[in-house]
Write a structure and sequence with these properties.
Helix content: over 70%
Domain Phosphatidic acid phosphatase type 2/haloperoxidase: 129-208
Protein name: Phosphatase PAP2 family protein
Strand content: under 5%
Keywords: Membrane, Transmembrane, Transmembrane helix
Number of helices: 8
Order of helices and strands: HHHHHHHH
Structural class: mainly alpha
Pfam family, one: PAP2
Mean pLDDT: 82
InterPro entries: PAP2/HPO (IPR000326), PAP2/HPO_sf (IPR036938)
Length: 224
Amino acid sequence: MSASTLQPTRVVIPAPATTRRGGAAALVGTVALLGLLYALVVLWPLGRWVDERVTVRVAQAAGREAHTAETLLALESAATVAAVLVAVLVVGVVRSRVPDAIAAVAAAGLAALATETLKLAVLSRPETSGFSLLPGTGSFPSGHVTIAVATAVAVVRVAPPRARAVTGVVAATLSGLVGAAVVVAGWHRPGDVAAGVLVAVIAHQATALAAARLSRSGRRAGCR
């Protein structure tokens, strides 16, 4: 018997098909939820009116707090977001999770690009009269909220397991503050905020699926 026949064979155990299908189904479901939200709070006159009524009431009740909200939102600058995403990459290198870190950063970039595309070219607000309190204001989805949530989730994705719960609470709190601030400042409607969250989730779902697929392909190629 030759030595080559005694060499062990590497066995690749692929992810269960049910897990892969579950991730794809979750992505499709979130996209469908975004479409449903758009129909309810933008296309449906009554839904749009309710969404705008809440915005007006909050802005009227906020008073001077609107200035505080704008000050908070000013902290979400391109430099701040870039610094956080660089930190995500550094953590990925330190924890030997570079592919995950790259996927998380890519999700943040994809979310920002998707939001700009959606609100400017796809999910625009129709010019209407009647059930309308804020014609021509706001946008669907909120870019500030999308970037805040996408960046926050990127941080959680690379956090050590022991710190993930605390990191998640902090990330959710900061994202929630941004979501509240854009409404208090009168920049967006609540529906825009919810849409921003969904776009960020979609981006992370998509990159997670892509990363998993690339990882499986890499393992299979390594066994040939």
